[in-house]
Structures are given as structure tokens and as C-alpha cells.
């Protein structure tokens, strides 16, 4: 991913924290010499070295998984349009955003390892439900039938690239004005970008 040096974030803990908070990602690999992407939720393990998830067995993407070839997972966070009318000088508009790309080698997981992955995923996303669904509450025959319809996998992370493009190249007046204008927007994304900018203010 192209990231100018003033937008690049090499802080590993911040990268991992971002993935945990924005865990709906896009899995990308090559299928018949073309890029192929699937949007799915991921679980990052405790020490930040592995990602797990699953896709439908009907999705041909899994048939092109290879232990030799890297895959990429893209995670996108808050993003918002920035009008150049907010600057104190003539310039062009832009877009502020946070994105993290993860690269690694993938292996298919089965049996107890697959079930453990599904349990962790379900427990994580059901945690805030009033009546949480759990694998233990499901009929065994139904659960086994559903499991046969998926392909689960684990990605061992080899590299993480992070872009935190938050107007770090602007002067103090422009930077503060962008925050003010973003906070006027109704879109939650714009206000989230403003919050990130305020928390990371370089001035």
C-alpha cells in the first residue's frame, strides 16, 4: 500500500488495536489470474500473530488458497471527505481515512480447531446481545450441517501496513479548522475522523 511517511503508522500495538476494533475485513487473493475479494469478520489472536475466519464453501476463492502464496486482508476504519474550502490557502480537496493491510500465509483449519475458531467468533460478536446465541445451545446435527457448508482458515501474519491519513501535513490553523468542519457533519464517519484527529493532534 502506498503510504507517504507522514501518514504511515508503524506502532504495532496501535495497528493491532485498530484491527480488533474494525474487524470486518476484505480477504484478497488470486483466482484464475484475477484479484478476488470477500468481506468477512475476523478474529485476531491474543499476541497479534494470527487471524482466523471462514468463508462459504460455495465461494470458489477457497479453492485457490495456497500455502506458498500470500493473501492480504484489508481493514478500513473511519473516513471522510475534506473540502479544501476549509484551508487558509488554495488547494485541492482530499479524503482522510485510517486503513490497515495485513499480509500472511493461509492454511485451512478443520475439526476441533475449526469449531474453536467458530466458537470464539460467535462469542465475540454475541457478547452484547440480550439473548446471546452460543454453539453450545445449537442442535448438534444442525451445527454439523452448517459447518459442512464453510471453509475455515488461519492466517499467520508476516507484515502489517497502516495508513493513518489525518491531515498531519497541514498547519495548525488548517488542522483545527478541519476538525471543526468535520464535527459539523451529520455522518458518524466524519465525526469519528475528527475525534481521531483531535486525539492525535501534532500541535
Can you give me a brief rundown of this structure?
The chain contains 5 helices and 7 strands. With 203 residues, it is of the alpha+beta class.
Question: What are the salient characteristics of this protein?
Answer:
seven-stranded antiparallel β-sheet, 34% strand, alpha+beta, Pnp Oxidase, Chain A, 203 residues
Kindly, what is the distance between the CA atoms of the first and last residues, rounded to a whole number of angstroms? 27 Å
- For the record, what is the CATH homologous superfamily label? Electron Transport, Fmn-binding Protein, Chain A
Estimate what percentage of residues fall within beta strands.
Answer: 25-35%
Structural class: alpha+beta
SS element count, helices: 5
What is the overall pLDDT average? Answer: 96
Outline type: elongated
Q: Low-confidence stretches at least 5 residues in length (pLDDT < 50)?
A: none
Main sheet summary: 7 strands, antiparallel
Please bin the fraction of helical residues: 25-40%
Query: How many domains?
Result: 1
Radius of gyration: 20 Å
Number of strands: 7
Helix/strand order, N-terminal first = HEEEEEEHHEHH
**What top-tier CATH class fits best?**
Mainly Beta
Do you know the CATH architecture?
Roll
CATH topology: Pnp Oxidase, Chain A
Order of adjacent strands in the largest pleated sheet: 2-1-5-6-7-4-3
Give the SSE map.
Elements: H1 12-21, E1 24-31, E2 34-41, E3 43-44, E4 50-56, E5 71-82, E6 94-109, H2 111-126, H3 140-147, E7 150-165, H4 172-183, H5 188-199
Antiparallel strand pairs: 1-2, 1-5, 3-4, 4-7, 5-6, 6-7
Helix pairs in contact: 4-5
Amino acid at each position: 500500500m502506498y503510504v507517504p511517511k507522514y501518514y504511515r503508522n508503524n506502532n504495532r500495538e496501535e495497528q493491532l488495536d485498530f484491527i480488533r476494533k474494525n474487524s470486518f475485513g476484505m480477504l484478497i487473493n488470486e483466482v484464475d489470474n484475477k484479484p478476488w475479494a470477500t468481506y468477512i469478520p475476523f478474529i485476531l489472536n491474543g499476541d497479534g500473530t494470527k487471524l482466523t475466519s471462514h468463508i462459504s464453501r460455495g465461494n470458489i476463492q477457497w479453492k485457490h488458497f495456497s500455502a506458498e502464496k500470500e493473501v492480504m486482508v484489508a481493514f478500513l476504519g473511519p473516513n471522510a471527505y475534506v473540502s479544501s474550502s476549509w484551508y487558509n490557502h488554495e488547494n485541492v480537496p482530499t479524503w482522510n481515512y485510517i486503513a490497515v493491510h495485513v499480509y500472511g500465509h493461509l492454511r485451512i483449519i478443520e475439526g476441533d480447531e475449526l469449531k474453536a475458531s467458530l466458537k470464539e467468533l460467535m462469542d465475540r460478536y454475541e457478547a452484547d446481545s440480550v439473548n446471546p446465541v452460543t454453539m453450545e445451545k445449537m442442535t448438534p446435527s444442525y451445527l454439523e450441517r452448517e459447518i459442512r457448508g464453510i471453509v475455515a482458515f488461519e492466517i499467520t501474519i508476516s507484515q502489517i501496513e497502516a495508513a493513518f491519513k489525518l491531515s498531519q501535513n497541514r498547519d495548525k490553523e488548517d488542522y483545527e479548522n478541519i476538525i471543526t468542519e468535520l464535527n459539523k457533519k451529520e455522518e458518524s464517519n466524519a465525526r469519528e475522523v475528527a475525534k481521531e484527529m483531535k486525539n492525535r493532534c501534532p500541535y
